[in-house]
What does this fold into?
Amino acid sequence: MSTPKHIISAATIVLNDQGEILLIKGPRRGWEMPGGQVEEGESLKDAAIRETKEESGIDIEITKFCGVFQNVDRSICNTLFRGKAIGGTPTTSSESLEVGFFPIPKALEMVTWKNFRKRIEYCLDERKYPFYVEFRGTDREDIEFEI
It folds into this structure.
């Protein structure tokens, strides 16, 4: 059997009791939501919880499945969840230079990498659930599909 050529990731838009969003500042992409690759034998939900803890120090509870962004050219499916902070302390890691909760308008200004801001906006708008966004190449070429 050949090695799979697809990557599945799970990311979470985490809100605290003040309605602020959790962001991490990665070494390559700047500010973004916590998330990463799903490990073999791991559920999407468990991966989202684990990645958030590893990258930010924050314990979360998943509250909703939001949708999927698929980069067809790179064979990557990014699954997106909403969650709420239930414990932990903001802590940096090898994957995060800075960690914090920010008011949503400020957070959206801080996120500048490709379509990450769009992912956050989709996850904050429950009218779009569940969404499926397919794109090739750059985010300027997004083709959106409703389910």
Observations:
- Residues 14-136 form a domain with the Nucleoside Triphosphate Pyrophosphohydrolase fold (CATH 3.90.79.10).
